[in-house]
Amino acid sequence: MPRTTTLECPGCPPLRALTFDSLGLIKVIESRVPQVVERWGDPDPSKCVLAASIDDRKKDPLLAVARKNGEVEAVNPLNGEIHAVFSNVGEDGVQPEDDAISGLHLFRRERPSGKALHASISVTKTWKVCGSGNVLCSKVDGSENYAVFGGKGVEVNLWDLEDCTKIWTAKPPPKNSLGIFTPSWFTCTTFQSNDDHRKFVADTNSHQVHLYDISAQRRPVLSFDFRETAIKVVTEDQDGHTLYIGNGSGDLASFDMRTGTCIYFD
Amino acid sequence: MGAKRKKSESETMEDYDDDVVLDKKEKKKMKQMEKEKKKEILPSMIKNKEKRSAVHAKLKLQKKVEKRKKLKARDAEEKRALELGEEPPPRKIPRTIENTREFDETVCKPDDELFAGNDADEFSSVLKRERIPKILITTSRFNSTRGPAFISELLEVIPNAHYYKRGTYDLKKIVEYAKKQDFTSLIVVHTNRREPDALLIIGLPDGPTAHFKLSRLVLRKDIKANVLSLLRCIACRIMEIPTSHEPELVLTNFTTHLGHRIGRLIQSLFPQEPNFRGRRVVTFHNQRDYIFFRHHRYIFETKESKQGDSKGKNRKDGKGEKNTQQKVIARLQECGPRFTLKLRSLQHETFDTKGGEYEWVHKPEMDTSRRRFFM
């Protein structure tokens, strides 16, 4: 990582970041004087944090944290108080260590079919996303009606959460000019903007970024390569067309999805 | 254009006004300084190579003579102060690159997070003596000249190490095979141009993969040749093939979190019960991100040192009253290979360059200053 420089930005609002690590600790970092301000939890490797999701509303914000031992905790992100703890052992008795949680989303509003309250969330419905393969990534869109799942050997699917049905699947990529078929391995996905559930981006283990539009076709509309290692994380910008990508060897870049050009690279 | 010229003239007139304000004496001093500066011609300003090198050599000699004078003066002062019974003036600390190392936030602090992390990491089972380290050594596909010699020496240094020929197996398959056979680490020696130049240490079963650049390899026969020519006494019998006692391990200067992790990786290669009677020590010393490997055998000796030579000579009573002090010192004899490692990348899981997640990769843009080190 290049040397970190500190720049004085008087107009920049103070940032507060929550980080989670493999020892189960939650640390709060503030940008006024860049340092770790608070640390919640005790170092315990069995409580390794696998996924987290925040609902940052003005009144009573909530943070959900999924841990390795199958527990899902609802935590107050301002002071670290634990509101509730759920256990996620599956109905068919699969142990949480074998069936690790790979994605988590905290629903903001109450759902007619489920019973979601402020302080406690109860799991109402579980369903199988795919027959075989591992689901590695998932994302729920801004309106919370649709969710996209993808994984190793699992093509990207779009599900309607009200009906719990699969409404769209992507087609596997065509064979290579050499006749080699690489099975799809999606590592992360995100919706391109909060309002539009039709466009989303999925990144693969072979350093490719695909943009899908379900109203257009089943193959990716736009796809490009990014460096040489697997892409580990992608997230969208609030303006709806910028995307931030991070890969396995520590490179960060931002792309404009309208054209597929790289805006900034680190 | 004319207007501009006028402005510049007026500016210069203002400068002259300022000059007039200065004292005449100060002006003279300034002129003298300028003259002296003009007299000192830097060697780099001379275009003629012979003359330039002559001037440079002269300058260097001057500096050397001055430095020697300073040192002599300092030593003389110290001696005088000791004789008088005063405290000698404190020695100045030289400024080194290690002294002026850039501040690193990742330097390990002994807190509970570090210990919990140690318990949770991949090496804890080996380091807590629950598993005995079993090493599999192999090579890259083409291996010749110094490679096999280096591997045979590694087999002697690391206890419980086994060598298998590489054949044409895929490295990922070798990793699976090693997991089945209960190996704890896999070492791959990579040869380039008939010279071993990279080392890949893979912890098993899910351990990290560390890729090192290997340089400055000196095999045991070359070390022996140097020292044998100097030794005349029978004590050279000691320098034979090192015994198979478990060695003691010395790891120094692994300060940051990355260094700590690499230190534990190296520690997991060796058995955790050193046999102190075997008097064998293996050292991995980290300095400026280079890890120096040395392998020594040591012997304890008692040395008699005389106290106060000048006083002893003046005494007429004889030799019986000399004050002798018994000091126990350890003499080292280097055996085994000697090489230097530099970490190129550390990957979180076993060998998978394309799909893997790297914990640390060296990129040229990270070398921002000469005083910045990562381990």
UniProtKB/TrEMBL annotation, chain A:
Q: Name one GO cellular component term.
A: nucleolus
What is the designated name of this protein?
Transducin/WD40 repeat-like superfamily protein
| UniProt-listed GO biological process terms | ribosomal large subunit biogenesis
SUPFAM superfamilies attached to this UniProt entry:
Quinoprotein alcohol dehydrogenase-like
InterPro entries membership: Quinoprotein_ADH-like_sf (IPR011047), WD40/YVTN_repeat-like_dom_sf (IPR015943), WDR74/Nsa1 (IPR037379)
According to the entry, what is the taxonomic lineage of the organism?
Answer: Eukaryota, Viridiplantae, Streptophyta, Embryophyta, Tracheophyta
From TrEMBL, chain B:
- Biological processes annotated in GO: maturation of 5.8S rRNA; maturation of LSU-rRNA
Name the segments for region: Disordered: 66-94, 304-325
Q: Where is the composition biased (Basic and acidic residues)?
A: 73-83, 304-324
Using the record's annotation, list all stretches that form the Brix domain: 133-352
Gene3D superfamilies per the record?
Probable brix-domain ribosomal biogenesis protein
Q: Name one GO cellular component term.
A: nucleolus
Query: What InterPro entries is this protein classified in?
Result: Brix, IMP4/RPF1
Q: What is this protein called?
A: RIBOSOME PRODUCTION FACTOR 1
